[in-house]
């Protein structure tokens, strides 16, 4: 985007310079044509006044055009700045979301590890009871750790 903005500025500047040079060339040609023709002194004064007025109009037109170009450039720069700010806000939101996902994943991973540890402890306790001859009717519907591992997908 920065390159596009720089390229657009350069093109506008070149275009403005070309228009200005063309206008100056035309004005000079008009002045030259006016001074080459043999006329009375009053006619020359009228031409000079007309040439001066036309040059003043040309200068005013060029000033307006320059203002318009500056306004267009400012609008483009403002638009670019808004787009950059929007992109930065979205980037910050994505980073925040990714951090929250990572925190949630780590919490879930820790809970899973804790549950696996508790399941191993309970399985070991249950196996030690059966080895000691404490046969307890195991009808609560709980499975042993080995049964859970065997049925994993």
From TrEMBL:
Keywords: Coiled coil, Cytoplasm. Coiled coil: none annotated. The keyword tRNA processing does not apply. One of its GO terms (biological process) is regulation of dendrite morphogenesis. Its main location: cytoplasm. Residues 44-56 have a biased composition (Basic and acidic residues). It comes from the Eukaryota. It is found in: Cytoplasm. The keyword Kinase does not apply. It comes from Lates japonicus. Residues 34-43 have a biased composition (Polar residues). Residues 33-56, 70-89 are annotated as: Disordered. InterPro entries: LZTS. GO terms for cellular component: cytoplasm; dendritic spine. This is Leucine zipper putative tumor suppressor 1.
């Amino acid at each position: 985007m920065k390159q596009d903005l720089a390229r657009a500025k350069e093109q506008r500047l070149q275009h403005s310079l070309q228009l200005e040079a063309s206008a100056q060339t035309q004005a000079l040609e008009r002045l030259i044509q006016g001074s080459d023709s043999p006329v009375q002194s009053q006619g020359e004064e009228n031409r000079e006044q007309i040439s001066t007025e036309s040059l003043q109009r040309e200068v005013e037109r060029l000033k307006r055009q320059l203002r318009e170009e500056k306004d267009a450039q400012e609008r483009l720069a403002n638009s670019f700045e808004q787009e950059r700010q929007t992109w930065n806000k979205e980037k910050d939101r994505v980073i925040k979301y990714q951090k929250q996902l990572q925190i949630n994943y780590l919490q879930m991973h820790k809970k899973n590890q804790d549950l696996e540890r508790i399941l191993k402890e309970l399985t070991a306790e249950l196996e030690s009871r059966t080895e000691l001859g404490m046969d307890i009717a195991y009808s609560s519907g709980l499975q042993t750790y080995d049964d859970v591992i065997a049925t994993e997908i």
